[in-house]
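Lecture notes, structural biology module. Today: joint structure prediction for complexes of two components.
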Amino acid sequence: MNHLQDIDLIAHYYGEPLLADNAQHLAICPICQDAFTALRKDLDRFDALEAPARGDDYGTVVWQAIAPRLQERITTKGWRWPSTPLRYLAAVAVLALAFWIGRQSTQSHDPPDTALQPGSERLALAMIRQHLDDTRLVFTDLSHGASDTQIEQDNVRQLVSDTRIYRAALPGDRIQLHQLLDDLELILLELAHRQDPHLDEDLQSHVRDLLFKIRATQQHIQNEAQTASTARTLL
Amino acid sequence: MNMERTEALLIQAARDGHEDAFQQIVVTHSAAVFAHAYRMTGNEQDAEEVVQDTFLRAYRQLARFDGRATLRTWLYRIASNRAIDLLRARKRRDVVEPLEEQHSEPASKPGQDAALNNRAIRQKLLQALDQLSGDERTAFVLRHFEHSSIAHIAQALNIRPNAAKNTVFRAVSKLRKLLKPLRTL
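The predicted structure, tokenised, for the full assembly:
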């Protein structure tokens, strides 16, 4: 009889019963027995990769972390900037003012230090970070082929609107963030107007690229906030 | 009342907007999703992020859950997708983030050798896992650590059982090839 194939030995290692012929062969064939022993030794090594233990209250901790964000998503995906033209302009003005006040108060410090990042600018950046988070979730769903339901389409359209507001309010020297928001708007617009729920390879590739950029930008904003926080503590 | 029935009722209640039902789901499955996310990413911080994203997404997509797979398998599927994104981003950044932060170790003393050796082995195992494709890693993690059946892996990957079996086979074959140097240890 032929020796057992690796795919059978692997199935056997994971507890699947062998066919009767295979089981009989394994019982008497030293070559297959050695092969199985070597396989077991290799795979047993992975038992060392135990996940770190979580406390008994871990589920509650996770719940507390996500519950506020969950509530946002229940009600029309959370709080959103209004979309009528007048309110749009008002939203841009509020955000722009937040950045402007931030810059003014930073300049009044001696020595001036952008790392100080006053509260109003910090708040505006936190809102942009949340917006990037929402966009990232939608992109991740789409990149994994999640069906493009009406809810998703509405959500994408809302993201387009929000992206425009944040970009309009952003100071001109935030070049990278401007570029990212430009790229986001282009892709979101395309997604918002698509009839076909499945992304072609080209669009998938764009979405994956943007996912990477979003993550990097979120990290950058977070680092900026941490640096500012440290600077304030030192003063 | 059996567990499946309880779970179905919880899901229905959560769909109807009862947050306490979804809270129960989160509390019940968080630790298992974390363990899966950790083995997928090899990084505790990333795993925490995956856990939170998984439940947020699960909540949004509850209407899409058709009950063909178990709730846990469905959660693993969402977590795997999120973890694969993180792994892709990590590869793009070309940053190697070890499972545990590597601290500069003082000269080893007797008794520490075994610990250092174990750490080195864990590192090799993780590096080998990083070489797998997303599907291969998901299939291997589910098979080896969660003791999932081929049918469950097929559901989690949304592929046929035969394809799932082959994916596990490919993963194990790659890992064994990558881990050959360890056989002398």
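Point to remember: Confidence is low (pLDDT under 50) at residues 73-79, 108-116 of chain A.
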